């Protein structure tokens, strides 16, 4: 079995409807030599993948919405994650406006950690209903986190997203 420090846990967080479960599904759907299916439940996906020629077990958790805003499940998420993907929809300005508050909460829960956080602007395929443009990257810069735009529907940048999370965790662990 893999070493404990070879297991990276990634939490999908963000408002309802932004595409967290669809993103998780794209990870769960990874096939081929680079991904072995391990134990899955409805809302966690565990895969062994190769990133930068090194194997890692990545567990993606889609459990954020099971907790209410102040609930202990969210605290559990905060304590468990090795990296956090704060997802908003580029077609939903309200979901974007919640990002700073969510990030503050994550950082408050783990005050002595330099948490890997990636700001994910999802639904980039919906060009005509886009409500958030350059502000995504700008906000990420202001908040000192990474930024990527994805389309879970078209699988655009989704593999890059999960690989990026692995790289961010490795960097923090001094193995990057
Ligand atoms: P969650 O509430 O954050 O888990 O969001 P879901 O994954 O359930 O997605 C909400 C809706 O948005 C569903 O109808 C998805 O099919 C749709 N959706 C999710 N990601 C994308 C995307 O990248 N592009 C488009 N066009 N639709 C998406
Ligand atoms: Mg969901």
TrEMBL record:
Subcellular location: Cell membrane
Keyword Phosphoprotein carried by entry: yes
An example Gene Ontology molecular-function term: GTP binding
Keyword annotations from UniProtKB, A to Z: Cell membrane, GTP-binding, Membrane, Nucleotide-binding, Phosphoprotein
Domain of life the protein comes from: Eukaryota
GO CC terms of this entry: plasma membrane
Main location: membrane
Its biological purpose: Binds GTP saturably and exhibits a low intrinsic rate of GTP hydrolysis.
Family per record: Belongs to the small GTPase superfamily. RGK family.
Protein name (database record): GTP-binding protein REM 2
Native organism taxonomy: Eukaryota, Metazoa, Chordata, Craniata, Vertebrata
Gene: Rem2
Interval of the full protein contained in this chain: 108 to 283 of 339
């Amino acid at each position: 079995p893999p070493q404990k420090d070879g297991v990276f846990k990634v939490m999908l967080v963000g408002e309802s409807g932004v595409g967290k479960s669809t993103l998780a599904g794209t990870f769960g759907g990874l096939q081929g030599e680079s991904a072995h299916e391990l134990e899955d439940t409805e809302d966690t996906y565990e895969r062994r993948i190769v990133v930068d020629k090194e194997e890692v077990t990545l567990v993606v958790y889609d459990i954020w919405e099971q907790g209410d805003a102040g609930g202990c499940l969210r605290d559990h998420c905060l304590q468990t994650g090795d990296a956090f993907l704060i997802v908003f929809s580029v077609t939903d300005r309200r979901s974007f406006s919640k990002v700073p508050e969510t990030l503050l909460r994550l950082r408050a829960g783990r005050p002595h950690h330099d948490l890997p956080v990636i700001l994910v602007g999802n639904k980039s395929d919906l060009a005509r209903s886009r409500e958030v443009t350059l502000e995504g990257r700008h906000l990420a810069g202001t908040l000192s986190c990474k930024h990527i735009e994805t389309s879970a529907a078209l699988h655009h940048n989704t593999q890059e997203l999960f690989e990026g999370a692995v790289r961010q965790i490795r960097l923090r662990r001094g193995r990057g």
